[in-house]
């Protein structure tokens, strides 16, 4: 059955097209967002010179962060109700506003949090066993539990979305492009349930080499004859795994 809203987006958006336009606008105009989500890596904060923390984050943000520990900042970013904080129209110096008895968050930080939350996909998720799809065993190898959870549910969503597009348009999705594919777990998973062409895009040479190595290993693993024991007859039977490339 085709869902009323094909994308899990906030009710603030009237249509998926309006959401997509706003997402593209924010992702291509916010320099800070582009730096934090693609311009730098976590390791860069520890190794790059000059200091990435100082050169990337606004000074008023860094001054605010100095007043609180990490857990307070995480709470502000993920859980705090931002609306009432953004509603403070008077300058903080004049109004005397405080947050948790201390410094008040900069308006630019509150606006950034609001924009990111508004554009984030909803986190509601059906985790019942009946809704979960088993990942191919050759893909699950070397994946930790967090990655298995992510790939299982997102690949299921992509497959469901492709089916919705087919039901609405009367023709299947011909191509899916995964930008920033990393080790290409998602692409390798989608190869199994979909007849769609999966194209993975990544700029890092090390990740590309690792993904190709895993892909080669999985294909050879699928074609390697496996030795199975028939306990009742005490004989060995050679069974080949058949895989459609």
UniProtKB/TrEMBL annotation:
Pfam families: Methyltransf_32. Residues 146-196 form the Methyltransferase domain. PANTHER family: CGI-41 METHYLTRANSFERASE, METHYLTRANSFERASE DOMAIN-CONTAINING PROTEIN. This is Methyltransferase domain-containing protein. It comes from Penicillium brevicompactum.
